[in-house]
Amino acid sequence: MQARLDLLDNPHASRILKHFTAAGRAVQDTGLPDSTRELVLLRVSQINGCAFCVDMHTKDAAAAGETAQRLHLVAAWREATVFTDAERAALDLAEHGTRIADGAGGVPDEVWAAATKHYAESQLFALVATIATINAFNRLNVITQQPAGWYQPGQFA
């Protein structure tokens, strides 16, 4: 696949992407576990069909110590027994926050309530910001047809 735009060589795209990246990094000091963040980034990217982000977040999570079993099961997390209740609440929030148009009224109250049982307010906002940011990245990459497979773990750190 040939990308429609070279996002790394375009000075305007690079400037804008730096802001998106900064927004994604801002959640790192909120207490949201890195493993939960990576699982959410991967699941949202799977839903949106963003091959570049699936490649990136699978590799980053594995490099950070995430197991292959858990990474393989993210797409079927509801039936998998390898995720904690907190991770399941985060993945549920991620799915509903990504599929807003599929459900009338957005994120159901019970999904939000489940997340509040496991995460403090700053962590909840970090989850919401992570979901919003990765959805934006997914759309940028899908629209411009960014190819997958070449990313190296930590490349954009």
TrEMBL record:
The keyword Oxidoreductase applies. GO terms for molecular function: peroxiredoxin activity. Pfam families: CMD (PF02627). Signal peptide: none annotated. Residues 19-95 form the Carboxymuconolactone decarboxylase-like domain. InterPro entries: AhpD-like, AhpD_core, CMD-like. Keywords: Oxidoreductase, Peroxidase. PANTHER family: 4-CARBOXYMUCONOLACTONE DECARBOXYLASE FAMILY PROTEIN (AFU_ORTHOLOGUE AFUA_6G11590) (PTHR34846), BLL7811 PROTEIN (PTHR34846:SF7). This is Alkylhydroperoxidase. It comes from Actinoplanes utahensis.
